[in-house]
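INTERNAL AUDIT FORM
Audit reference: QA-55
Scope: verify that the stored structure record matches its stored sequence.
Auditor: D.O.
Record contents follow.
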Amino acid sequence: MASKVWWASTLVAACTAPTALGGFAVVTGATNASQWLGNAGAYSTITFTEFPYGTMIREQYASLGIHFVEPQGNWINGSDINGTDVFLQDGWGLHGQNSIDMRFDTSMRGLAVYYPGIVKAQFFFGSELVYSWTQNGGGGSNKFAGFFGDVAFDRVVFKSATNAPPWMDPYPAVFDNLYFTPVPAPGAAACLLGFLAIAGGRRRAF
C-alpha cells in the first residue's frame, strides 16, 4: 500500500506540474527497482548481452529508437573490470571511457539503469538541460536508479561523478541493464488513466 500511495502522489505532481526544469522522481536502490519496473507501464529493455564482448555500440539498437553517440565510443564489457564484478545482473554491461551518451528518436518520460560506482546523469530535451542527478554516496556494484520526469527528454548522458586528476584520463562510466519508456499518448488523458490505475509512473508534460 505504501508504494501505491507514493506513486499516486508522484502521478498527481506530474500530471499537474507545468513544464519546468528538474521535476523528476527518482527511485534508488536495487531492492527498490520493482517500484520503477512495476509502475513504468510499457518499457523497452537492453541487457547488453545481445552482442559479443568488445562490440562498439553506436546504432545497433536503432530499431528501439535509441542511438549511442559518445565520440570515443561505448562498448560491451564483461563483468570483470579492474578485478571488480560490476555487472551483477547478467555479467555484461556498457562501458564508456568518457561518458555514455544516448539520443532517442521520440520523447521519453522514464529511464532506469543498474550501475556500479558513483555516477552523474544529465537529461536533455533538444539542447536544453532539464534535469541533473548525482549519486554522491560510496562505490559498489548492483546499484539502481530509475527516473520519471514531468518534462520530456530525448537525450541522456551518464558520466562518472568523480573527477580524475588532470594527468589521468576521465574515469569511465558503466552500467548494466537499461530500461526506458516513452511519453504516452494522447498526453493528458494517458496521465489521468495512469493516475486512476496507480500504474503509469510519472507522465511527462511538454
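Auditor finding: record pair retrieved intact. Residues 24-185 form a domain with the Jelly Rolls fold (CATH 2.60.120).
Action required: none
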